[in-house]
Design brief:
By secondary structure, the protein is α/β, with parallel strands linked by helices. Helices cover 58% and strands 13% of the residues.
């Protein structure tokens, strides 16, 4: 089974790319979805976050936007959260990849903002990043998450710089506000990366 790693900052268009790849037969794993599911099922993880970030639990339940406001404004606090969560997310992704392999899947794709910061990158046959202009990213984050521009800007600023992605990833998809063009480029790249896996 070939594993493709997909990364890029928030609001760049990774979901569009993953949708194309899923339509072409890839088994797609979204690290954010894995994380949010673990928050519902892994009580030890949730309790660790509660101890570290009590202000993110104003009524006893996790307020993800409140947590975001804390960690996107403070790199040290963000690293604390990553230390608490990354191990659990990676273990779950590894479990899903193993299950996909047992099921005979030929291609899996993992979408993770922090892909380049952990061991999953080494598991990938190819690393792909999606890049987009900042203002377009901010507009997408605001529309998608129902947040204000200041929150979106803080979230975007917390990520890697474009040049870091370009330096670490073998393939770059440019999203210049034309979803159809991005989808076409994603399909061409997918076929290029998986031609040997699928035949």
């Amino acid at each position: 089974m070939i594993v493709i790693g997909l990364t890029g900052g928030s609001g760049t268009g990774k979901t569009t790319v993953m949708g194309v790849w899923a339509g072409l037969g890839a088994y797609c794993i979204d690290a954010d979805e894995v994380y949010h599911r673990l928050l519902q099922t892994d009580t030890a993880l949730t309790e660790a976050i509660r101890r570290a970030f009590p202000a993110a639990f104003p009524d006893g339940r996790l307020d993800r936007k409140a947590l975001g406001r804390i960690v996107f404004a403070d790199a040290d606090r963000r690293r604390t959260l990553e230390t608490l969560t990354h191990g659990a997310v990676i273990r779950e992704i590894e479990r899903l990849l193993a299950a996909a392999r047992r099921d005979g899947r030929r291609v899996a794709a993992v979408d993770a903002v922090a892909l380049l910061d952990g061991p999953l990158a080494a598991r990938c046959a190819a690393l792909v990043c999606v890049l987009a202009p900042l203002e377009a990213r901010l507009a997408r984050i605001v529309a998608r998450d129902g947040v204000d521009v200041a929150y979106a800007r803080a979230r975007a600023a917390a990520g890697r710089r474009d040049e870091d992605y370009r330096a670490r990833c073998g393939f770059v998809l440019e999203n210049n506000a034309d979803p159809a063009a991005l989808a076409r480029a994603a399909e061409v790249l997918y076929r290029r990366l998986t031609e040997h896996a699928e035949h």
